[in-house]
From TrEMBL:
<feature type="binding site">
    <location>
        <position position="347"/>
    </location>
    <ligand>
        <name>NAD(+)</name>
    </ligand>
</feature>
<keyword id="KW-0378">Hydrolase</keyword>
<keyword id="KW-0520">NAD</keyword>
<dbReference type="GO" id="GO:0033353">
    <property type="term" value="P:S-adenosylmethionine cycle"/>
</dbReference>
<dbReference type="GO" id="GO:0006730">
    <property type="term" value="P:one-carbon metabolic process"/>
</dbReference>
<dbReference type="InterPro" id="IPR036291">
    <property type="entry name" value="NAD(P)-bd_dom_sf"/>
</dbReference>
<feature type="binding site">
    <location>
        <begin position="151"/>
        <end position="153"/>
    </location>
    <ligand>
        <name>NAD(+)</name>
    </ligand>
</feature>
<feature type="binding site">
    <location>
        <position position="180"/>
    </location>
    <ligand>
        <name>substrate</name>
    </ligand>
</feature>
<protein>
    <recommendedName>
        <fullName>Adenosylhomocysteinase</fullName>
        <ecNumber>3.13.2.1</ecNumber>
    </recommendedName>
</protein>
<feature type="binding site">
    <location>
        <begin position="214"/>
        <end position="219"/>
    </location>
    <ligand>
        <name>NAD(+)</name>
    </ligand>
</feature>
<comment type="similarity">
    <text>Belongs to the adenosylhomocysteinase family.</text>
</comment>
<dbReference type="GO" id="GO:0071269">
    <property type="term" value="P:L-homocysteine biosynthetic process"/>
</dbReference>
<keyword id="KW-0554">One-carbon metabolism</keyword>
<feature type="binding site">
    <location>
        <position position="125"/>
    </location>
    <ligand>
        <name>substrate</name>
    </ligand>
</feature>
<comment type="function">
    <text>May play a key role in the regulation of the intracellular concentration of adenosylhomocysteine.</text>
</comment>
<dbReference type="Pfam" id="PF05221">
    <property type="entry name" value="AdoHcyase"/>
</dbReference>
<comment type="pathway">
    <text>Amino-acid biosynthesis; L-homocysteine biosynthesis; L-homocysteine from S-adenosyl-L-homocysteine: step 1/1.</text>
</comment>
Amino acid sequence: MEYHVKDEALAEKGQLRIEWAARSMPVLRSIRERFAKEKPLQGLRLSACLHVTTETATLAQTLKAGGAEVRLCASNPLSTQDDVAASLAVHDGIAVFAIKGEDKDTYYRHIHQALAHEPNITMDDGADLVSTLHSEKKELLRGILGGTEETTTGVIRLRSMAQQGVLQYPIIAVNDANTKHLFDNRYGTGQSTIDGIIRATNRLLAGSTFVVSGYGWCGRGVAMRAAGMGAKVVITEVDPLRALEAVMDGYQVMPMAEAARIGDFFCTLTGDIHVIRREHFEVMKDGAIVANSGHFNVELDLEALEAMAVAKRPVREFLLEYRLANGRCLYVVGEGRLVNLAAAEGHPSSVMDMSFANQALCVEHLVKHAKTLENKVYGVPEAIDREIARLKLESMGVAIDQLTDEQEKYLRSWEMGT
């Protein structure tokens, strides 16, 4: 079997870590048990471009249990856990092409290798796989039934493709499922982003000013966790509704031009380009720490910072110091890439349980219904979303009420008023 990992000797360590993650993923485990019996993905070739973590490994094992031939590559050059990649290749017979810290050429070569078996289904996190298919591997498009997309940035790109009429097969936006973005984006990103920043810097958040750029679900999660650790949280936004919500949630809201002068920590979570730019770096405090938890590192204008710096050096693992001409030093975490994966281990497995349950069930849905779907971006079927929530509650030992016949009749009627 073809694969490319850093070191096969890491496989034993990776296997133990995968087993530990799986203990907190009961929903995906129940799906895997059913898939192993029913084989709903039998004969399917699936190419996945995801962060190669312990949780992703559990998803890959589930897809293989369902009968799929899985090829996996990384969706970010710094997000791969090398021991996990080795374990999947050595112990599970899954073709993995991922090495932490791989350069750009290797990253795209791995994407091509993940597509080499001519997939029927794609599974993406950021839409690099889909983009490569539509630009460089068009001959493979005719064999594809559909795909799934994990993250906000990828959904934005795919909707743009659909609007322009260039998307050649249906995609389910897993990111938009309530059991994904309301939990993974908020609680997962919130905890793991703070974890990555602290691991890289070992700085105290309490009493500091923490600037969060973007108040979507990910931004909400980071703001919540930073505030919980005692930081004074400042929000920057371009959307008046989200800015108003941040004010109502008790945070200061101001333009980045003002926040740049007072922040001790900065974290971007917008999905847009150059959110922190030269004019912001120019006024930051000496010692300011800058991180990004959006999918791509373009949220930080690192080229401008490179041009401003008179010297650059690594001072800790995943922490670069940029010394400016006036003697000030600014610090960038994880090369500006996804800080929760570049400098930490990504989302906790209990929250990824729901996200990846969505992935597995949406692939099954595509196999059953792809012929009736158009070449556009679809939401996760409500029945799947609700079933995942039900299974998660059940695994947590939580029971809820059910509507009585009288209540159901009332909700269906229009005659009954005051």
